Amino acid sequence: MNTSNGKTFGKDLLGLVLLFIFLILFLMSDRLNDSEMISNLPNAWVNVNTIFLSIVIEAIPFILLGVFVSSLIQIYVSEETIQRFLPKSALMALVPAAMLGAILPLCECAIVPVVRRLIKKGMPLHVGVVFLVAAPILNPIVFASTYFAFRSEQTNTILYSRMGLAFVLSIIIGAILYGIFKNSHQLRGENISLHVHGHHHHHPGDGSSTFFSKIKDTMYHAVDEFFMMGKYLIIGAFIAAMFQTFLDRAVLTAIGQNDFSSTMVMMIFAYLLSLCSEADAFVASSFGSQFTDMSLVAFLVYGPMLDLKNTFMLFAFFKARFVIVFMITVTIIVFASVMVLFGVIL
């Protein structure tokens, strides 16, 4: 328990430090730019700072909105209510599950434990899979952030390709995993903590919950999720800024303009950066001049479905064979579908 608390404290401390560094860079940016220390720095590092700040500043409002709405759903909407609206038929439940993801702004940071709870309460495994891959993309906040991130002629292509693929592919992935696992038990033992963040939250319908306690829990959850997602955003934005500044432009252009290589590179990049789906569009848009629309769509679809941080959560909550099959399925389906959508494979 002490080790777990130590790890939680370390992660929270990292988030605070990173946010503090960002605030210093943001609030003191004018003075820093005029200072002798900055003027002596190479132009490349000044460019890193400029790109980094622009990505984070654009993304933070959407993260704040997302964590607050997500927290309200976490506290006030019961899993039983969600389950009651799903059809009993295995195949008939796939489409409603994808549609349900379109109205619940849960990012990939929070969706894994939520799906685990739903499966424990009787939701079929394959329906949980659809919800797992659809919810982080198919919601109004991600739609809005993607729209504002690509304010050019790219907007319609990338926005609707992202949303359309997410809806269709979530159903396909759910159907494939149903064919492999049916409704077999794929959760790990019951000794795993249900809540990732460590706070106790009242569940909807809990008679002991008062209005003020629910408000307090909503605030706790929102702050907790903001710090968790904020540090990933800052790290991702910094890596993106470094990537754009220091990578040889000739290499970047050669990779980015080839359909196959650019798509694979951006999918790997999405997996490693582990960005929140409410903010990843701003990072993707910063690569718009070097990479094809196809690879940007792959980045925006693949990252929310599967990334480094939710891989650890998947292995913690689900059996290893299920997670490996899930990862392989998502990777192949996303890559092949983007190729087909943009006419590379016909």
DSSP strand count:
0
Biggest beta sheet attributes: none
Number of domains: 1
- Strand content of the residues, in percent? under 5%
Q: Which blocks of ≥5 consecutive residues have pLDDT under 50?
A: 191-201
Report how far apart the termini are: 55 Å
Model description:
The chain has 346 residues and is an all-alpha fold. 74% of the residues lie in helices and 0% in strands. The longest helix has 36 residues, at 211-246. Residues 191-201 have low confidence and may be disordered. InterPro entries: DUF318 (IPR005524), UPF0718 (IPR052923). This is Permease.
Structural key phrases:
346 residues; mainly alpha; 0% strand; transmembrane helix; cell membrane; Permease
Brief synopsis:
The chain crosses the membrane at residues 12-29, 49-77, 89-115, 127-150, 162-181, 226-247, 322-345. Pfam families: ArsP_1. The protein is 74% helix and 0% strand.
SSE inventory with pairings:
Layout: H1 2-27, H2 29-34, H3 36-39, H4 43-76, H5 79-84, H6 94-101, H7 108-120, H8 125-134, H9 140-149, H10 154-181, H11 211-246, H12 249-256, H13 259-273, H14 280-285, H15 293-305, H16 308-317, H17 320-341
